[in-house]
Amino acid sequence: MRITRSKAVAATAAAALVATLAACSSGGGEDGGEPAADLSGKSTGAMEDYDVGTSFKATEPLTFGLMYRDHPNYPFQADWSVFQHLKEDRNVSFEFQSVPLADWQQKRSLLISSGEAADIIPSTYVADVETLTSGGALLPVSDYLDYLPNFMDKVEKWGLQEELDRTRSADGKFYVLPGLLEQPKPSYSIAIRADWWEEAGLEDPKTWDEFTEQLEIIKERHPELEYPYTERWSINGPMEATLQAAAGNFGTEAGWGYGDGVTWTGSEYEYTGASEGYRELLTYFHDLVDKGLLDPEGLTQEDDPAIAKLTTGKVAALGVNDQEIVRYRTGFEEAGNKDAEIRQIVVPAGPAGNIMDATTGGQFESGVALSAKAAERDDFVALLQFVDWLYYSDEGLEFAKWGVEGETYTKDASGTRTLADDVDWGSLNPGAPKLLNTDFGYYNGVFSLAHGSTTDLVQSTLRQEVIDFHAGMNEKEVAEQGPGVAMDEMQREESSLLQTNLEDIVMTATAQFILGDRPLSEWDAYVAELEGAGMDRYVELVNQAAGVTE
Prior knowledge:
By secondary structure, this protein is an alpha/beta fold. 37% of the residues lie in helices and 13% in strands. It has two domains: 3-184 and 362-393, D-Maltodextrin-Binding Protein, domain 2 (3-Layer(aba) Sandwich); 187-360 and 482-550, Periplasmic binding protein-like II (D-Maltodextrin-Binding Protein, domain 2, 3-Layer(aba) Sandwich), CATH 3.40.190. The strands form seven sheets. A four-stranded mixed β-sheet has the order 7-10-6-11. α11 (303-311) packs across α12. The radius of gyration is 24 Å and the shape is globular. The two termini are 22 Å apart.
């Protein structure tokens, strides 16, 4: 896998950005790019001077259609503060198209494909709608970048144009405005019993091999443990979170990051599940099982039993993210194990280096799509301005996360935000009677990224240990993603069936190889199975769509 230093990529992208924006933005026109869209007659309610730093307010009351993802943790309330302030302060109200979270993926697709989707479709990744772009129901938002100054300002400042261009479809356009991060925000690694590690004189492991050695020491010092390490997040596939976190260090992609099943080598895409890096990754975790260091049940067990093994002292390490570690600590207290200490380690380096895979190290998150029929509205320009302000301006992002100063939070002269005395979120203000999302509608994935966009906003609600974890992870190199794979409808139809069949084989074999149910000596036979299922043809289609081969 070809690797590039993230800082070098950002610098190169920034240096070349003036030319890139000229070629790719909707205002290209005379520079050979896309012509600016003609939106004459569609400026009802729009601000004439809207730009970066402008506080958006429609010049007259407007109502936009919003497909609302109703989350059971904070059920929809029409009288939430967030809606009241958008109406009073921004002149924007909504016609809600409410969809329960459990039905979100399927119903969103049905509403889009039938042409019945609301104007604004939030909480959407590029991959969620890539099969729906050819039907004409989604707006090619890349045609309207001139009207999205905050979005383009962050793309430019943060060196994201190349990553944005990878989202373009075969027609050269993109249909989702992704959520943007100033820096990657990795969350997953492994939690260790810090008190046991310190008693053994051990520091956090720097490499996966060192992690193996430390597990052996912990097992020797604690013979009551059947296994020192177990796993979770294995319901849809074996230990998906940890395999994704570890994969970059082995030069591959895995788990939740397996994606479309291809990995960039520097010159072309190869099939991930048949690669040498993937074999080395599986070999490593198989060796942990073989040595009695990794609990075999970790590849299939549900989350609650896995957590119980940790909190009751039956294991010393478990997969974690920066939120779940708080749950682990609560579990220790409930189990009467109040002296236990737990720490999230930075993902160790591996044979390929100290690397994050491209998905973990990416700077895109769920974003916003727009219905094609929104462009027919006479207030379409105002709709674009509103989306740009709420999802991409510093002011809008702060509003969506923290709410209204003086109501839900205060801010001191240094810019430090503090929740109001009666408001809590994430145990920042434990015991407060109200929650920022449940009672006010803020910190809501419908309106913003879960943690915000700028580094300042992301870190504004994080514990110091999480900030330190991010800093350690962001010292890693990030695997290069390679060119975008823009398939036309025929290519996508053929590749979709191949991809599904191939991934089924890979996921089954992944568990078998790690557990030892299938010996790694059968790797060549396994690759032959992939070839028989059309692996070579699938990779050929991918490389053709990426422009690597004819």
